[in-house]
Design a protein that fits this description.
Blueprint (H helix, E strand, L loop, with lengths): L12 H24 L2 H22 L11 H30 L2 H6 L7 H27 L8 H28 L3 H16 L12 H9 L1 H13 L9 H4 L1 H25 L4
Helix pairs in contact: 1-5, 2-3, 2-5, 3-5, 3-6, 3-7, 3-9, 5-6, 6-9, 6-11, 9-11
Subcellular location: Cell membrane; Membrane
Family: Belongs to the ABC-2 integral membrane protein family.
Membrane topology: Multi-pass membrane protein
Length: about 280
């Protein structure tokens, strides 16, 4: 189908905003109701990062020297928080591309609703899902002995940076989900998520890598957020001599802002051009 969404009823900008918010919430409730019908699948998505943390912490933690001393889980958990928001990218991609391939998205576009509601509704639903997944990881970290040591305000700032990265990655996932040809194509894109996750400072200090590889790992947006949250949590392993390590907190804001500036308009444009 190539039919675009009907325009919203004419009125003031405030009225149009109200229509857009109502439509967004309708799509959000639709996505949440789908998850309620698949609780096992949703729970698996929440606990998969827990399994990764237990596996790496239990199998390799004793063999890794933590920069600055301290327990490995204290070093690992801030990185795993960042890894958790990265894993959500795959869920977003699959949901968006499945709706597009089944004609659901075209159906929405033919209805008298806001043209932004489909992508913004998906964004709100996935952010709510990410908050739950991140909460599961925080509880896991506390049970494993992780603590924040920088005060409540710094801890809240760290969680804010994690959610900011998740919000940016949402738009990457929405664009990728709209761009691929079908659910079977998502696998090829998913393969790229793992190198991004492992070529980072999540599990080891980039200083332990070869120089060129360590530089790539340090500039990875995931590493930047992991380093910034370690600093805010006053966890072992933050810092370093490079410029990016010394400026991790501002760069943990700049990287997501850049991703949003690029992929949000691309997602909206791609949505508008579906079927053309």
């Amino acid at each position: 189908m190539t039919t675009s969404a009907h325009p919203l009823p004419s009125g003031s900008p405030l009225s149009s905003l109200g229509w857009a918010l109502a439509d967004t919430w309708t799509i959000t409730r639709r996505d949440l109701s789908h998850w309620a019908l698949r609780p096992g699948e949703v729970a698996l998505g929440w606990f998969f990062p827990v399994m990764i943390a237990l596996m790496f912490g239990g199998l390799f933690g004793g063999a890794i020297n933590v920069p600055g001393g301290g327990g490995y889980f204290e070093f690992l958990m801030p990185g795993m928080f960042a890894m958790t928001v990265l894993f959500g990218l795959e869920t977003t991609m699959m949901a968006v591309t499945t709706d597009a391939s089944r004609g659901v998205t075209d159906r929405f576009r033919s209805m008298p609703m806001s043209s932004l509601a489909v992508v913004s509704g998906r964004c709100v639903a996935d952010m709510l899902n990410s908050v739950v997944g991140l909460s599961v990881m925080v509880v896991t970290g506390l049970l494993l002995g992780w603590r924040w040591h920088g005060g409540l305000a710094s801890a809240l700032a760290a969680f804010g940076l994690l959610l900011l990265l998740r919000f940016a990655l949402l738009w990457v996932g929405i664009f990728a989900g709209l761009a691929v040809r079908g659910p079977e194509s998502v696998t090829a894109v998913q393969i790229l998520v793992w190198p991004v996750g492992f070529l980072s400072s999540v599990f080891v200090d980039p200083a332990s890598m070869p120089g060129w590889l360590g530089a790539i790992a340090e500039w990875n947006p995931l590493s930047v957020t992991a380093t910034a949250t370690r600093e805010l949590f006053a966890a072992p392993g933050f810092g370093g001599e490079s410029w990016i390590a010394q400026n991790a907190i501002p760069m943990a804001i700049a990287w997501p802002a850049l991703l949003i500036a690029v992929f949000l308009p691309l997602s909206v444009r791609r949505y508008g051009n579906l079927g053309k």
